Each structure stands twice: as structure tokens, then as C-alpha cells.
Amino acid sequence: MPSTEITFYPDGPCVVRGPVRLVDEHDEEIPNRRKTIALCRCGRSRLMPFCDATHRAAGFVTGEKTDPGSGEH
Amino acid sequence: MNMQMDGPSTTPLPPPAGPLTEALFERLQRPPHTLGELPAAGDDPLGGDDHHLALYVCSELAFRGWAGVDSEWEWEPSLITLRLELERAFEGAVLDAIDTVPDAREGDVPTRLRTAVEADESPSVARFLAQQGTADQIRELLAHRSAYHLKEVDPHVRTIPRLPYRAKAALVEVLTDEYGGGRPEYLHAELFRKAMDAFGLDGTENAYVACLPGVTLATVNLMTLFGAHSRWRGALVGHLAATEMTSSEANRRYARAVRRVGFDFPEATHFFDEHVEADAIHDVVCVHDLAGGLADAEPELADSIVFGARALMLVEERLALHLLGAWEAEASSLRAPLQTVAPLAA
User: Fold this and answer.
1) Chain B interface, best mutation among A36, A37, A46, A47, by max B CB count within 10 A
2) pLDDT in tens, B150-204
3) Predicted-complex ipTM score
4) CB 3.0 to 4.6 Å from B14: which of A30, B210, B224, B290, for a disulfide?
5) For the whole model, what pTM was predicted?
6) CB within 8 A of B140, min separation 6: which ones?
7) Which chain A residues touch B if contact means CB-CB below 8 Å?
């Protein structure tokens, strides 16, 4: 089984490379023909759930990666 | 003896645009020979019609070529010398124009690329067309862009073997997508040809070169030049990254313009819609993996990568000023009228 990788790009989308099935909250499949997809993280895309680069004009900032030990419990 | 008299293209050489192209085109229709002394172009090396048509026609010999021009001309040493002279004059003019614009050189390459793109104050052709463009103005834009989009990313391919591994994988990933991922109907050049067909334009390669001013040909000559020389591999990467960074938004506006003038069907809109989504992916891959990857492996190329981005914005700003200047004066932006056939609709 080939592995799937998700890259979290700073101030931008998550890019998924590798086989993946996309479904909505009703388990309906979201059509996709691409090998590499970018998923919106800023919430402003007009192509949801895919990125359309609107994050750039919106000035979206992802912030630093959180250290797993530092979360509140 | 010449076994192959023509290039694979069916398009003949365009009419000349000045003393250099007049002399050069007459020679190119003969069997390859030493060019000797030719008249100088004498116009602006940054966007002159004669200068850039001569360079475009010479460079095209490495792509699809010209009907009636022996493909052996591609490697004729005196033609290569002429091409290099035209390229050096163009490079020099671009470097001079950009030297006057300050660059803080702060941050890593992805940050510097973002700073450069955000500092760009060029007027937006896409916004103009989305708000008030006519079908004829969209037709003109398609003709201008046909010189590149009918061979979209072909100029970038030669850079692949010149890159270190992470940047190489990123460039191949982007180019594979541009080339349709193995499906010819998804080649971006093919989607563009369909949009041209929809608007009643001839999608044959270089069919409209005779109509294009030097400021348009300069935008193509710039990336062909960056792609042809190993020493410009950084600039080619920065140029592509800045293209992708600005592409999704521009194409969303072009798609709106195309629909607004009544061409709301897939053949006309697919090219633009496809670029909104595809280039949002290419954007991050080019900025972080391609440009960032190259700068991590070869830090001395950082300035060259940023230069490529700023060179793109320089030639694109000059083209935008030309297009909007013509359209605001209700004139054509082309050197010769467009020959069209019946459009699909509207």
C-alpha cells in the first residue's frame, strides 16, 4: 500500500500526495481527479474543500507548530 | 545535403517588424549558412518589436520551428551568436530597470518572493476585463497570451536536469500537472487552444505572432532565455514561482470576464477555472519546495531566484500598461488586426 503524505505549508493549505478518498459529512464522495490536492485551511476558499489561493489576499497566518507536550489538559 | 527542410510547425515566418527581422527572415528561408553582418534592430531591447520578434523567431527553432525554415538552423553557429547578442541586450535592459528598485534582501527566499509579489503595483488586466472587458478585448488577450500558453511550460523543461533533488522533484510535479498528468486532453496548452477555438481564434502555434508587439514577445522571450541557460536556473525558478503565486486570482477574474461576455460553457472557461485550483497547488509547491529547496541547496542562488520573480513583474507591468493604454483609448493592442472565424457562441 503506497503511503499518503500531508504537507502543512506555512500560511497556506495542506497538500495531500498519495491515494486518498474524499467524503463530505454525509459520506458522499467529493470528486477529485488530481494526484496532488491542496485543502483549504483559511476558510475563505470559493472551491471548498480545495484551496484557491484566497489565503494570500486574506493575509492568513498559520502560526508555529504546537509542541505536543504544551497543550492544556 | 539537407534531409529536413522544414520544422514540424505548419506556421510560416511572420512579416518582418524592422530592419533586423527583414534581413534575418529572408536568410532563414534559404538553406542554413553563415549569417555574417546583419542590420541592428535599433529599437528598445526591453520591448522593441524588431528586437523581440527576431529573438522570438530564433528561440522558436528550439520548439516547434517554422514552416519553410530548415530545422538545422537551430544549431547554426552564427544564428546562435545572433540569439546570444539579442539575449544579452535584453538581459542588460532588464537588469538596469530592476537595479533602480530596492530589495531589502530580508528573510528566506519564500519570504522574499512574497515581499516582491506584494510590492508589485502593476495595474491588473484581469480586474479590468472582469469589470468591463469586451469579447473583442478578451480575444486580443488570448492572442497575446497564445505565444506562451500554446507551449505552456515548454521553456521550463530544460531546467529540470540543472536542479538539486528536492527542487527537481517539485518542478517535475508541477510540470507533470501542466502537461495533463499523462492525459493529452488535460494539457494546459490544449485547454488554451479550446478557449481560443471558443472565441473564434486559430489555435495553431504562432498563428498570431504577426499581430504581437515586442512587449508581449518579451514576456515569452524572458522565460525562454531563463530556461535556455544553466546560469539562469535560479531566475527560471523565481519566475515560475511568482507566476504561480499570482495566477489563481488572475484566472478567477479572467473566468468571470469570459462568463460575463456570454461564453459560459466549458470549452471557453475550462482553461481559466483549471488554473484557479491547479495554480493554488503549484503556488505552495513552487514557493517552498522548488524555490525554497533550491535556495537551501544552493544559497548563492537566492538573489537570482528573487531577480527572476522581479523580472517577470517588470515585463508583465509593461505589457499591462500597453494593453490597458490601448483599451482605454478604445484602440487595438495588437500590431495587426485579428483574423477570426465564427466563435462557438455569444
Assistant:
1) A36
2) 999 999 999 999 999 999 999 999 999 999 988 999 999 999 999 999 999 999 9
3) 0.86
4) B210
5) 0.93
6) B323, B332, B333, B334, B338
7) 9-10, 12-13, 15, 34-38, 46-47, 50-54, 56-57
